[in-house]
Amino acid sequence: MASKPSKKLETFDNPFIARDYRIHMEIPEFTCLCPKTGQPDFARLILDYIPDKKCVELKSLKLYIWSYRDEGAFHEAVTNQILDDLVAVLKPRYMRLIAKFFVRGGIFTNVIAEHRKKGWKPEPAVFLEAFEEQSNTRGD
Fold first, then answer.
1. Phi, psi at 108, each rounded to 5°
2. Are the CB atoms for 75 and 101 separated by under 8 Å?
3. Can you tell me the distance from the alpha carbon of 24 to that of 28, in angstroms, rounded to the nearest whole number?
4. Residue 45's pLDDT is what?
5. Which domain holds residue 48?
6. pLDDT of 87-134, one tens digit each?
7. How remote is the C-alpha of 25 from its chain's centroid?
8. Binding-site annotation: residue ranges
9. Does 107 reside within a domain?
10. Please, which residues bridge with residue 50 across strands?
11. Which residues are catalytic?
């Protein structure tokens, strides 16, 4: 196997540091294990952030997400841990992580965690269009 899971998140310099801009990512194949039963939990992660000096490198993010596949974690804990790890290496102006867990026992769980850099205030929003759901993802 050429690649393996890793907790190391790599970064690169933000190419447009003077501007607030949004980076939007959808990660439709997140898995971890239920800490009570050991059964797999599946989720779609939605990551939005406004970078400051650094951006996350995508291959390292993929390997980082993969590292949770065999770990037991409550939905709330894993969502906040991922956000904390990303904030620690990126120090973004703003970041939001939404974890939309698939049904388990008749219950869907959505966990939303946010970070705002101290003193950062967003520019007033101008909504021209919204991102469409990706046609290659499962569910809502």
1. -90, 140
2. yes
3. 13
4. 98
5. 19-116
6. 999 999 999 999 999 998 889 999 999 999 999 998 887 777 776 666
7. 7
8. 56-58, 75-76
9. yes
10. 94
11. 34, 41
